[in-house]
């Protein structure tokens, strides 16, 4: 009798993982993908999906959290110490693809998740970038005549804009790191003395 419970738990975890993976794929391709589309892509029925995620909001919360956690694993492995200008280039080159996926997920999540919850899910990436901007300002490679939060938001706006341009076919994936880096560096670089 005790072996059935761990097996059921393992089956449930596999179902949840399949549903979240399908939601990430479906919503990255189409932020308006339906719960039915996601269930079909996961290979489960709607009843199974709703057994794990009672609402679309719960599903989107788990999906966005999963994407951000995976991105956090990637970005936390970067060595961003030392020269802030080089670190910013490395961070931008590594994060644009993560932002491309999360931008579509964010589009899907904004109607059903609170702004507070979305900010909470983005805490770690925001803290990393804020610390880097502060260090760049201290090293003289990032201008100091603008608020730090504005500079952090500027980076996010440009990354999200690149994701939109990629989905629209106006930018190609191989162009984005250079375009994003050039745009952000020109906006953040101090004026020559």
Quick recap:
With 193 residues, this protein is mostly helical. Helix content is 76%, strand content 0%.
Properties at a glance:
single chain, 193 residues, mainly alpha, Arc Repressor Mutant, subunit A, Tetracycline Repressor, domain 2, 9 helices, HTH-type_TetR-like_transc_reg, TetR/AcrR family transcriptional regulator
State the end-to-end distance.
77 Å
In CATH terms, the superfamily of the largest domain is Tetracycline Repressor, domain 2
Tell me the fraction of residues in β-strands, as a range.
under 5%
Q: Give the name of the CATH architecture of the largest domain.
A: Orthogonal Bundle
Largest sheet geometry: none
Total helical segments: 9
What structural class is derived from the secondary structure elements?
mainly alpha
Could you explain the architecture of this structure?
- The protein has 193 residues and is mainly alpha-helical.
- The chain has two domains: 1-54, Arc Repressor Mutant, subunit A (Orthogonal Bundle); 58-188, Orthogonal Bundle (Tetracycline Repressor, domain 2), CATH 1.10.357.10.
- It is 76% helix and 0% strand.
- Helix 1 (4-29) packs across helix 5, helix 4 runs antiparallel to helix 5 and helix 8 (148-168) packs antiparallel against helix 9 (176-188).
- The chain starts with a helix and ends in a 5-residue tail after the last helix.
- Residues 34-53 bind DNA.
- Residues 13-71 form the HTH tetR-type domain.
């Amino acid at each position: 009798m005790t072996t059935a419970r761990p097996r059921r738990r393992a089956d449930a975890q596999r179902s949840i993982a399949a549903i979240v993976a399908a939601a990430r794929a479906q919503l990255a391709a189409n932020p308006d993908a339906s719960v039915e589309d996601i269930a079909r892509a996961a290979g489960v029925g709607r009843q199974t999906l709703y057994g794990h995620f009672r609402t679309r909001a719960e599903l989107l919360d788990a999906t966005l959290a999963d994407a951000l956690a995976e991105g956090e694993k990637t970005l936390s492995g970067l060595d961003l110490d030392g020269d802030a200008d080089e670190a910013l280039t490395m961070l931008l080159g590594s994060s644009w693809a993560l932002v491309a996926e999360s931008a579509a997920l964010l589009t899907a999540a904004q109607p059903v998740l609170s702004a507070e919850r979305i900010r909470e899910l983005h805490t770690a990436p925001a803290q990393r970038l804020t610390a880097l901007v502060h260090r760049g300002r201290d090293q003289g490679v990032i201008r100091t005549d603008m608020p730090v939060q504005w500079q952090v938001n500027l980076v996010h706006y440009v990354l999200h804009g690149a994701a939109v341009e990629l989905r629209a076919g106006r930018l190609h994936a191989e162009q984005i790191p250079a375009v994003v880096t050039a745009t952000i560096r020109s906006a953040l670089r101090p004026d020559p003395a």
